[in-house]
Amino acid sequence: MSSLAPGQRLEARCTRCRDVTGHVIIALVDGRVVKVECCACGSVHKYYPPEAPAREVKHRALRVRPGHERGEAVLAATRRQPRPGAASGPGAPSRAGQHTARLQAELERQWQDALARNPATPEPYAMTGNYALGALVDHPSFGVGMVLALTPPDKMEILFREGIKALRCQC
């Protein structure tokens, strides 16, 4: 039987490294290791043995409603429908993803409206160019856009299909 003491080294699962690494014992309670320090990252945490037993999966109790049979309840539990608005499956977009998609669609609509309102031919973009509000600009990377704002002495904001970009100009 090996006696454990503070300062001894042992293997443990590190909560920061998320791996089994060498640790130094910091605290013992009734001969059990309770606190360790990771030699790899220096974090101090509770002791987790290298091979922790897997947690038992808790199943929800099956509810059989009055007037129904157990078989119907089992079938209903296996094909449970997600609540409306909730993401279902690994490929379903999250709420943040849905919000981003809405913002991109709105930006695309604004860009289409800006081009439809201004039938002029776009000027090629140049950093030394002088542009007016509402002018169309043809950028080599971003494509066609419309000047939204001028910020003297040398900046302008242009609405492109990808979004609003701040570019240099001669205001």
Short description:
The chain is an alpha+beta fold and 171 residues long.
Shape: flat
Structural class: alpha+beta
Task: Quote the beta fraction.
Answer: 25-35%
Q: Strand count, sense and closure of the main sheet?
A: 5 strands, mixed
Task: Please state the average pLDDT score.
Answer: 84
Order of helices and strands: EEEEHHEEEEE
Q: What is the helix content?
A: 10-25%
Strand element count = 9
In the sheet with the most strands, the strands line up as 5-6-7-8-9
Task: Give the termini separation.
Answer: 82 Å
Q: Can you tell me the residue ranges where pLDDT is under 50 for at least 5 consecutive residues?
A: none
Summed up, the helix count is 2
Cα gyration radius (Å): 31 Å
Q: Which SSEs are present, and which pair or pack?
A:
Layout: E1 9-14, E2 19-29, E3 32-38, E4 44-46, H1 70-78, H2 95-117, E5 123-124, E6 136-139, E7 143-151, E8 155-160, E9 163-168
Parallel strand pairs: 5-6
Antiparallel strand pairs: 1-2, 2-3, 3-4, 6-7, 7-8, 8-9
